[in-house]
Amino acid sequence: MTAPEILNQVIEACGGETWHSPKTLMLKGEAFFTPYGKTDEAHFLHFDTYQLYRVFPEANDSARTANGKIRFDAQYGENDFFSLRFDGNATNMHLSERAKPYAKHFEWSNNFGFSIIRHALAQGFGLERLTDDQIDGHDCFLIKITDLKGDETFYGIDQQYFTIRYLHFNTAVGYHHRIYSDFTRVEGQDFVQPQRLRIYFEGLRWMDIRWKEFAVNQPIENEIFEGRGERGMA
Length: 234
What we know:
Layout: H1 3-14, H2 17-20, E1 24-33, E2 45-55, E3 69-76, E4 79-86, E5 91-95, E6 126-135, E7 138-146, E8 152-158, E9 164-171, E10 174-185, E11 192-201, E12 204-216, H3 223-226
Antiparallel strand pairs: 1-2, 1-12, 2-3, 3-4, 4-5, 6-7, 7-8, 8-9, 9-10, 10-11, 11-12
């Protein structure tokens, strides 16, 4: 199979047009924060609230640039850890004192990358199939996507189910990779969502996210991205 053929299979397996061109996505769950792989009391945190709000752009030419609208919130108990927002024009990063030492790792350019696969069949993108591999014991195709800015993102695609199990790219704070697992089809939607996401920098796990609530193509008020929205998923 060629890289474009593999990508077409991904789109079909993950939900077709709903997955390929979603309007919005909301996710809520919990996360375990282990910066630099550290689990001691001074570093480890359990975010009992970790949530994402996303309005997707219609077009995208860069994997490392914030686009559309996006917001992440992390809270532990009654404490806010961070709130990261992009309202379509500007980024607002609200960091607690405990989060400030990791500010560079939270920048969009060091985290954006997954959704560029939805645009990779568009004119001007580069697609290349590389050597196969195994991710978490699953046989995977490996494809490289080069966006219109020249940035490269690598994806591991499950050879049986055509779900995305792996992603990696280089960042200003080191090599970044993610492992996706526990896939589910969102209730009432033709949209496959991984329920678990492990995030690594320089080979060390920084975050283990467990998504528990999902909403696809539901309206999201602009106030959410401007910082005036209520806590919790709408």
